[in-house]
Amino acid sequence: MANKYKIDPSKIEGFDNLSADEKVAALLNQEIEVEQTEPADVTKLKTSLSKANSEAAEYKRLLREKQTEAERAEADRAEREKALQDELASYRDKERISSYKAQLMSAGVDSETADLMAKSLPEGVADEYFLATKSFLDNQRQKLLTESINKQPGLSVGTPPTAAQAEREEENLLRKRMGLPLR
């Protein structure tokens, strides 16, 4: 939804006495004040979130009052354990992303792209992904190598020479240099 702004020419001194070009220049130089307002739904969501957080804190406080000392200690221990589990999961996620990034970079992907790709790969599918990617890249390299060999002048696509043929060609080269007949 586009905002509409009105320019008040009464704020420009002597606006009525200016020529058309001067009026245009004066209007172009006038600064417009724009109020930054949030859409109603964003404000409503923020209010709801704030209210929900307040209610959660109040319920937690009421629960703490009703718990015995042993129950409080157990709840504190459970909270600390949950925090440790969350931290461990975070470290494992960072290690997984780092590992994926290293594998992508070893395949020739630049660092920034590898970072984006590693973060987007879900856990559990990466092995299949890397296997498929490696297979694809190997096939592409082989295809490019084959194409480059075929484009080189003077190379035949035929069967490679055997050891006996290579020895005969070497002997014929030597005979040619000596002026002897070829075999």
Helix-strand blueprint:
Layout: H1 20-29, H2 40-66, H3 69-106, H4 111-120, H5 126-151, H6 163-178
Structure description:
The protein has helices at residues 20-29, 40-66, 69-106, 111-120, 126-151, 163-178. The chain is an all-alpha fold. The termini are far apart. The model has no long low-confidence stretch (mean pLDDT 82).
In short:
This protein is mostly helical. It has helices at residues 20-29, 40-66, 69-106, 111-120, 126-151, 163-178.
Key features?
flat, 6 helices, mainly alpha, 69% helix, 183 residues, single chain
Helix share bin: 55-70%
- Spans with pLDDT under 50 lasting ≥5 residues? none
Structural class by secondary-structure content: mainly alpha
Q: Would you list the SSEs in sequence order as H and E?
A: HHHHHH
Count of helical stretches? 6
Radius of gyration: 39 Å
Beta-strand content? under 5%
The chain-level mean pLDDT equals 82
Shape: flat
The beta-strand count equals 0
Major β-sheet annotation: none
The rounded distance between the terminal residues' Cα atoms is: 90 Å
